[in-house]
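Predict structure. Chain length: 68.
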Amino acid sequence: MLTRSLYETLGLAGVYDKALAGQRLSLDEGRALSQCPDPLAVGALAHAVRTRLHGDQAFYVINSHVNY
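Prediction complete.
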């Protein structure tokens, strides 16, 4: 799903290039992501960045709240 042509049609080609290159996004690029009509494309891009940074590891936290 991570094809540059998809992100070009969404107007996010610059965001796509920066995210895959490991560069920080600007505030305007973050706004463009939040207004994207395709949340699956945003999620796929976020997953690609997370996988590049942390591999296939997953973490979770178990919180306990003891109520009297």
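Summary: The chain has four helices and no strands.
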